[in-house]
Amino acid sequence: MISIGVIGCGYWGPNLVRNFSVLKGCRVKTLCDTDPHRLEAVSSLYSQVELTTDYSSLIADTDIDAVVIATPVRFHFEMALQSLLSGKHVFVEKPMVGNVHEGKILLETAAKHNLTLMVGHTFIYSPAVRKMKQIIDSGELGEIQYLSARRLNLGLFQKDINVAWDLAPHDISIILYVLDDSPLSVNCQGKAHVHPNIEDITNMVLNYHNGRIATIQSSWLDPNKVRDMTVVGSKKMLVYNDLEPMEKIKIYDKHVEIPPHYDTFAEFHYSYHYGDMHAPYIKQYEPLKRECRHFLDCIETGDTSESSGIEALKVVQVLEAASKSLKDGGGKIDIEPYYPSEVVSKTAVDSRLG
Amino acid sequence: MISIGVIGCGYWGPNLVRNFSVLKGCRVKTLCDTDPHRLEAVSSLYSQVELTTDYSSLIADTDIDAVVIATPVRFHFEMALQSLLSGKHVFVEKPMVGNVHEGKILLETAAKHNLTLMVGHTFIYSPAVRKMKQIIDSGELGEIQYLSARRLNLGLFQKDINVAWDLAPHDISIILYVLDDSPLSVNCQGKAHVHPNIEDITNMVLNYHNGRIATIQSSWLDPNKVRDMTVVGSKKMLVYNDLEPMEKIKIYDKHVEIPPHYDTFAEFHYSYHYGDMHAPYIKQYEPLKRECRHFLDCIETGDTSESSGIEALKVVQVLEAASKSLKDGGGKIDIEPYYPSEVVSKTAVDSRLG
Amino acid sequence: MISIGVIGCGYWGPNLVRNFSVLKGCRVKTLCDTDPHRLEAVSSLYSQVELTTDYSSLIADTDIDAVVIATPVRFHFEMALQSLLSGKHVFVEKPMVGNVHEGKILLETAAKHNLTLMVGHTFIYSPAVRKMKQIIDSGELGEIQYLSARRLNLGLFQKDINVAWDLAPHDISIILYVLDDSPLSVNCQGKAHVHPNIEDITNMVLNYHNGRIATIQSSWLDPNKVRDMTVVGSKKMLVYNDLEPMEKIKIYDKHVEIPPHYDTFAEFHYSYHYGDMHAPYIKQYEPLKRECRHFLDCIETGDTSESSGIEALKVVQVLEAASKSLKDGGGKIDIEPYYPSEVVSKTAVDSRLG
Amino acid sequence: MISIGVIGCGYWGPNLVRNFSVLKGCRVKTLCDTDPHRLEAVSSLYSQVELTTDYSSLIADTDIDAVVIATPVRFHFEMALQSLLSGKHVFVEKPMVGNVHEGKILLETAAKHNLTLMVGHTFIYSPAVRKMKQIIDSGELGEIQYLSARRLNLGLFQKDINVAWDLAPHDISIILYVLDDSPLSVNCQGKAHVHPNIEDITNMVLNYHNGRIATIQSSWLDPNKVRDMTVVGSKKMLVYNDLEPMEKIKIYDKHVEIPPHYDTFAEFHYSYHYGDMHAPYIKQYEPLKRECRHFLDCIETGDTSESSGIEALKVVQVLEAASKSLKDGGGKIDIEPYYPSEVVSKTAVDSRLG
Question: pTM score, two decimals?
């Protein structure tokens, strides 16, 4: 029976509590939030759960095996690191941390203590994204040439991170997952309209080998909610619209054919082949439930999670590069590959803990 | 009675012939195309029209008062310049020419001979775009902070120009028209997937005073046809979807409000106000018909067209800057303001004509 | 503190348990279901709830003040009647009962014992339907001439009731609520495709004074899920689409104007005025939560519920008339108005109870 | 070279003129309309066409081989009959005539004189409807159990016919074509809101062998334009939405499966199988052009048209039965099968001609 403590009962925390409360093989022992009203509200459904406003005491609780962190990003590193150093497995919401350096420290610490470190990139556990990867891996689309993602809505505005750090982690984690390839560099442009220095609109470009690119638009300033992704392959195209109730994925059997030479028609345009559209059936389930189940399984088996610290670090690397590019006016920022073997000096850890 | 000669009976030309054929105060005297089959096909409806495959003879015809040019871009300058030098008024399809230098020569030549030079930026004559400008000018949206346009579809691929030169002129002309402001610089990134060196996907950013930006996405590689524009104002937002049969323009009474200081809620997010959505009634008519009528009126009155050579030159300036930025890997390219007073040496004209 | 017992933990029951569990002033004491696995599954979240597979013992429990019934319709009457006779307030899911006679008995019994009898017509507690009624009552649409509702999807097939009894209660209760008028008669046609004698497609017409009609289409055999209602007024039209995430209600300022006599154009058609479209902002909340709160309030205050037994009986009257019309091949079946004063002989009750 | 005279240059006539003007093997000799302004407007594009406001003179013209009639329905019979009696082939717009009796007279007359009589049921020449028939005939959907059509919009109101006669002919002709089966009887209910005695909303039911039904909703009083058809088969379902720009036809691999007996789950509902959705590619072309071409071919070959008088008569039979049912309050009206062999007394013809 894995005993769990949850830190953060704001917007997302309650969903984690709900799922861990019904999963077999674990129990939610303690809830923590700085706001007593939130604690009361959430706990009303879970009469036997202990409550605290002091996260350190929760982390210090020797009866707790795993800590689930659903707080603003700026608290992630401190709470996750303390939990790991206290021998707790850690599930932390995305993005894992606010910079690559902190991410590496968490990775190394988890590795050193043989603890599970998993990050809440929920979308890669969703049936639609699984189906999309399956289709791409099958080669049905041919070679993937281009990928374009949009995540737009009005608000919710964060005060301490920009829209890229707030919304893009979803798209970055999905793209890393389905392409199974690491970008070499990142460009990012954006603009802050509402709050100075906090971009509410960003356009990101991930640059891959052979000039393949993936673009990500993120916005807090769009009247319409948009959650879509277009994948252009050499044979077919795929559109993933997460807001579609039934047909979330549509495959278009359309592609461009370069006409034979000397075809005078080609003087004016390429011919292109139009074909059928196909929306595969996707069985629905709650991604978060599968994600929580996966966390418990990894703790028991010691397996590496599909959204482990290493995968999560790649997301942070892209976000950090994007931030640099934003300051740089959109210039290309390289991503240096990370080798887990790389050692983080213990002093680095101690220094952060003072 | 204005006598008109039309050069180019391909994809768009026939629409111009159809409109000029029914408008009062003019007649279509001659059609020209290099392809005799196209000529025959188009003329079947217009039994009294003369046909030729030699555009020079059409331009030389002293009975013709105005020349309408609907050919691939690379022929625009030569044909328009010859027509102006032969004393003909000129209506040329967009983009006016392939570079700023040629555009200036056409402007100066038209001015010198007191001839009407008009470019087919049809959208600024459409009821939806007129309504959009009217709403923006009324101040209903507040100060315009951000504008985002998309024009996506599969093909038609051009062989001699990239997707930015093919599709973006529509959006650039609309943005210049509704904002009534000139961008200071342009960034553009893109990628050529199908044909080397001809980008089929481009993302353009127009940079204005005070950091205001407008973004334009153009693609020949999207399975879905998209023609939309989002305008974010300080008070309201507007979405223009040209593919909507009825409600092409929707105004969203939603905006972000910065909460008072010391509001603890603000620690987590800005509040935002949701309001009504409103789709104003837009009376339909054919924009091209209005545009053709406007050309005839400008010839008669000598007035400057709403899509005159000067307006069209601004579009070419943006496109030329975008091309430089593309080669430059997305860097910012400044646009030097153009003063019509500026003189183009006669030699420049002669040199081109050899 | 109102003590509640819930009978039926199948498809809908758990939602009622969830809401009553968090509402102030009540507690869920006992859950009942014939399937022990369902009981276990639902109770896992509510550790202090008692469980039973015998609904009679639940009804007999003197510590329970109110019984909530979410079982198949065929059990409603028996369970509700026993509960009332045991002095319990009753909340029963829709449709209240399978025929008018049973409905009257429940009404009279509740009245006789001064108990609250409320039926789960959830939609009349939804923000969109409230807004629709408010708009209609304001007169903005003019006189309501016609109303058309559709509720279509694939399955879920009931075994003991047809699609009209399964889906139409939603639409009937909404129409009765927003029009605040009782139909004089009903026509209904339909067809059973999948299971003999259980119609899976029905088209119902409610006939009102002055020939005003409302139509209701119900289907278990449509590939697309549809939940909409069109209201035609003498001034404006309203469309309520419950599947729209944001703009559930759209008001169209379009109406037909009869042209003056002697207008030759009128020989061919009426002119019609096109105007703006307007989607009012609707604040979201969970209708079921409000409904459950309302039930508790009615118990405390003794007020009559907005979905009281009397309102629910009108729905059953329409359904019963529709069933007769179905057997009758679509003929018009009158609805005899019901006067609550009407007495139901005690023997009727006893006879049913044996 | 077939010489054609066109009567009626109102809403639809010009489209017929445009097509016949470019088709090989024919020429438009004369246009007729009672309104000189319409004549002038339409003829402006066709300089060599003769004009007249007297349709009798057009019919009497011995140089004319075929008469095309695009007038209000009430003139169809008179003009078509005179044309046939003058030895002209006839193309008349839908509905062919206002009652079955007149329809039979036209049929017999055309047959007697070996003339082509064709009616403008354009939709059966459209690529989407052809594809739909092909899919149904292939058996992919299994046995067709149910068909439901909707054709709704605001106006255009006719003054001399109700909405069923105005809009339903499209749907009736499509249904007759794709099912290739004749209904045994018709039910129709409706209501006149705007103009007394002219229904602006009708719901029609076509009853076939084995209780199979097809429903047709027609409305002039809907704020949204709707043109769709749902076909429910024993294996799959098909939705045809004529307003979809690309995917007009969608096939849903969903159907209901009756679970094995003794499956306790079946106590509550039938299981249903969800599968993929598939939108076949449909090559676009102008249906009217194909229809006009087909008329010319039938004249030359003497073949019977796919929308011959006999097919058109079936449509009129349904409409006439629907009108009777409307007056009858929705009762079932039988359709008596028609045998072309049936003789129409010459006196009947003469009497009408006086």
Answer: 0.89
